[in-house]
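Entries read sequence, tokenised fold; example below:

***
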Amino acid sequence: MKKTSRLISSAVLPAIVLVLLLCGIAYAVEKRDARVTQIVHDVRVLPSKAAARPATLNETVSQGTGVRTGSDSRAELTFGDLSLTRLGANTVFSFDQGARNVNLSSGAILICVPPEAGSVRISAPAVSAAISGGVAMAEAHKDSWIKIIIIEGQGVVTLKSNGKSLTLHSGQMITLPPGAIEFTKVLNINLKKLTDKSLLVRFAKLPKWVWTLIDAEINRQLTSPPSGGYSDPTGFDKIDQRAATLPTPPEHTPPPDRSPPGLNSLTGGKPK
């Protein structure tokens, strides 16, 4: 009997190990992929070796596959570790390494990362930004201004032209011209006004854990406002990108007639 038990154990144990290994591999793959959890109007999946096609709700998007939104359109992708990315209008986006690296070719995104999930690196024309612990917005367009907003957590922004870096904290924003070789002034923004007006935040309900992070920073601003006050994040052109709200450029930036079209394009539907 004992011999029979040992034979059964020796046969069953490797099978159990194999099942656990396969489950672990499947779970790891699932964590690297994303699920489409919100679709508004024209949202398309861009497979690397196939033609673009309309996205469907709850479909799986594998790393390396792009997602594109049309005018007045939005989308949301949710990952296995609960990280999520929202896309504004006219946005082209892809990701790899399980959402740890995201590529923003053009458009606007909102990224929400649980504190325990580590950091996410955003790559955009001219800059990259490593976002840790938090909630951030980014916008980029070809030959146009780039904007990075940290709502919660922190972000290390790096200029691709020379490797210079700058750390942004909760409630801070920076806008950079095309091909920037120096950083412009960091602005403090009113997070309540931003999140009240932003379509990236408001077009669908965000998970409770995201609002817990956002509300904590809003309350912090209410009790400890910056000494220099806030830049108003609601001065925007409503016909532009329909994604989020941003203030007008700081005074030290070039005059409006020298700024490229769509400077405030985190806000409306179609670029001017």
